[in-house]
Specification:
Strand content: 25-35%
Shape: globular
Structural class: mainly beta
Distance between the termini: 48 Å
Number of strands: 11
Number of helices: 3
Oligomer: single chain
CATH topology: Sulfite Oxidase, Chain A, domain 2
CATH class: Alpha Beta
Radius of gyration: 18 Å
């Protein structure tokens, strides 16, 4: 074979890390339901409200001052792409809920642009979810949900709401934006829970 015709060798990937019906991507596709919001950081706040003893809120500077962690995880989009070994930095939901008296079983993430998504509170706790502010060592770009997005990597990526501004804690479940349009209420990629009948 002549030089230049070998092609680039693809890394060996453990197929057990890719859920059924997914294909691997090395890019980071951008999919959004509407235009990308650009909230100035001096106007950004994050609030926890609802079925809690008291609402709490942080400004951007206060949020960044909270303990953060950096971790590597795989992400899986309902549109069938998976991206492995993504690196995020953010504040754990457990940190944000610490010290609060909570009677809720469900949460609704609400965002700039009017987007919402619902998640059982148990799926946000136990070090399973963060509010991410950085990706791959740099501040999260607006097209990927910056300045901050919810990250729930064990669920399909639409549950990792972009441009998050808060969480409403609830006693009852309340479908979010895509869930009202027929997406699955839970969204487990390993069970291929893409749509309401799955």
């Amino acid at each position: 074979m002549s030089a230049g015709f070998h092609g680039r060798r693809r890394p060996v990937v453990d197929s057990a890390r890719i859920p059924p019906g997914q294909h691997l991507t090395e890019t980071f596709p951008v999919l959004s339901a509407g235009p990308t919001p650009h909230t100035p950081l001096d106007q950004w706040t994050f609030t926890i409200r609802g079925a809690v003893d008291r609402p709490v809120s942080w400004t951007w500077d206060e949020f960044l001052a909270l303990p953060s962690r950096t971790f590597t995880t795989d992400i899986h989009c309902v549109t069938r792409w998976s991206k492995l070994d993504t690196v995020w930095t953010g504040v754990a939901i457990d940190t944000l809920l610490a010290g609060l008296d909570i009677s809720a079983s469900y949460a609704v993430a609400y965002c700039d642009g009017g987007y919402t998504t619902n998640v059982p509170l148990a799926d946000l706790r136990g070090d399973q979810a963060v509010i991410a502010h950085s990706y791959d060592g740099v501040p999260l770009e607006a097209q990927h949900g910056g300045p901050a997005r919810l990250l729930v990597p064990h669920l399909y990526f639409w549950k990792s709401a972009k441009w998050i501004r808060g969480i409403e804690l609830r006693h009852d479940d309340a479908p979010g934006f895509w869930e009202r349009y027929g997406y699955h209420n839970y969204g487990d990629p390993w069970q291929e829970q893409r749509y309401s009948g799955d």
